[in-house]
Give the backbone structure.
Amino acid sequence: MSNEEKNLYELAGRIYDLDEEVYHELGSSLGRVFNEKKEHCIEETFHLMQERNQAHILRNELALISNMARTIQDRAARHRIMVKYDAILKEVADLPASYIKGDILDKKMATLNALNLRSRFSENDHLIICIGRTYGCGGSEIGFTLADSLKINYYDVEIFDEVLKRLEVEKEQIHDRGGYPYQKGAKDSRYLHTSPAFAPTPKSTLKEKFREFNRYHGLPKRDAVFFNQSDLICDMARKEDFVVMGRCADAILTNNRIPHISIFITAPLEQRVRRVMEVRGYDKEKEARKFLTKLDKEHVKYYKFYTGRNWGKARNYDLCINSASYGIQGSVDLIMRMIDKKEERE
Amino acid sequence: MILRKIVAFLGCSMAVLASSPVTALAAQGAAGTSKTISPWFCIPFAGLLFCIAVLPLIKPEWWESHQPLAVAFWSLLFILPFGFVFGAETAAENVLECLVNDYLTFIVLLFGLFCVAGNITMEGDLAGSPRVNIILLAIGTLLSSFIGTTGASMLMVRPVIKMNAWRRHRSHIMVFFIFLISNLGGSLTPIGDPPLLMGFSRGVPFFWSLHLFPIMLFNMAVLLFIFYWVDRKAYCRDIARGRKPDISRPGTKIKIRGIHNLIFLVMIVAAVILSGVLPDMPLFKTAEGHVRGIPVFGEVVLGFPSVIEILIILAAAFLSFKTTSPNIRKKNHFTWGAIKEVAVLFIGIFITMQPALAILKGMGSQLGLTENYQMFWVTGLLSSFLDNTPTYLVFLTTAGAIGFTSGLATTLGTVPAKMLTAISCGAVFMGANTYIGNAPNFMVKAISDENGIHMPSFFGYIRWSLTVLIPVFLLDTLLFFR
């Protein structure tokens, strides 16, 4: 990091601290300007200061802090804070128009570049592999085999169990809607108990709806589960290495600045249809095709809703694999080669 | 960009001033009677609006600290030439009449509701989502008719801000809050919005406004539908950026502190009702039929009903402060900033809009308005910038003077129910078109600005009303006022 960048980070930190100080001084419970985690806010402010076309957003945010600061009742505290604010405002106004002249490099993207995998994970970071996949492409098996090869945990349905414990929800009401449920110690039979992804939830009574409203803080159940799941994924990412299947984990970890590798696995529809007919016991190809098309649509919708990204678009992943070209073991080998672990394990 | 907006605003203002039928007719009138107000007296009003709209964009810091100066400048720019043309005594009477009889009760009511609502706080972990927001907006809208748009706005604004504190994109929530709770919701009873109270004191039955329920319901449903999709998009953007509410504790616990202040809220509502009822009682009338009161200057009298209203409201505010822990106000981030800003700006607005109202009053009957849709739009568009109470009264008088034989018998003449509906809806609904259309609009904006929400500028807000409200009002015209 250059000296200029260090200074910007330091300034961003001071802006965050100023907002925090104003908020504490007011004792308000109505919210503040920077309402995310400290490090996220600082990084965001840093990027705002770096980019010319974003400068107005930073100015607006500073204006909001000053709006709040001016309402502090204690004169001395208000004066102290306004002096700090003025100093920061002056520094922001004196910033060069842009730091990104003449370079197309997006530093945010560059740090997540697949070629930089070695430098992506520091000693304190855990190896987290997020796999997104289309139904019927063998993604779950690839994920499980990969986790097995790396001797790390594989999370799919387990995540839901944890989430449900947190939410105190009856376990039997929730299915893993993302793919084949994995059962420890029942490696071969796990493909047999398939439940349809994104199946419509059964209708509930008004009383149940009211109970749900209360239980999930007024949020739709799906959103509440997603938020709890996000917390859980981030907590786990700080403690252990793992492979996680679906759950928008790649976007969640990106938003929380947690290093990870994101992989998307798919296969041509014909292969997936054939596989689904075998696994789910569909007699008619048309039915299987319809089932997969519907699932893909639901996946696209779900992923777009929670991440704002397009599901399956190559630009969102470090690696996209056509599993029909490599097979399950071939895909695992490819990923292992990419993350440079094969030799190490062997 | 800002310069283009300024030029557009100036162009529009001048075009309206030069080409509006009101102006043309007023000019003709001026030729006939030497004491008719010239439309040029409206320039200070346009100037003040210009400042409110533009200065926060180009000189925000200066505007914040010099608002009283700008207001004094434009007020004097009206008062001094007015005094020069009509005499100092007439000018003083005119200004005092507006300050004592319009502004004083207006600001005391706002002050009372601001104080009382600021002493009620909601603690809980309900997370602001499109669904929760729709419920809150719907409750607030319905509440507006029973405790007034200002009362409901002040009561609901902090819980809405608090529940959505986790979100980044939330200014649209406050915009729809202004549309629905601060304006539209007040259409069902005379307590809801001052124009309807004025209608009630002119002979419109108290519960007649309930006839507006289907129209209000339609507008509410359409606006909430639009809101849902706008909010859902913003909610998704927030989630996609990694924002999430704190729902780590299972179950929702909502606790309202300072709930006893609802008694003081009821006190204020009762004071407002009394101010509409008392002037018609013989006890408060002189032999000539004028309202008894304290003489202030010349013919300016502060009516006893207004004095009673003011005393009750101030007592409610005082008791509310005395009986509530300061900690609640701290939690609510209660400051005087919002009410101070509204008090300063609206004193200027009230003074400088007098010529526009006088012209309107003089020319109302000559505008040739006979259709319901005309009444709806003209009352509405003027209410967007002028005080909606006198605007309502002007058009109610105009409608009463047309000479209809069937309809509602008011003290101003018989008015067909559909026309009264159009006038009422225009006055109440279209106050939402601008920040200055209705006092709670500005209060909500000021409170939001103080609590980390970046509210749209004057023009930004008008863009919202042009894209959301005007199409809804066009639908209203087609369905209800044809």
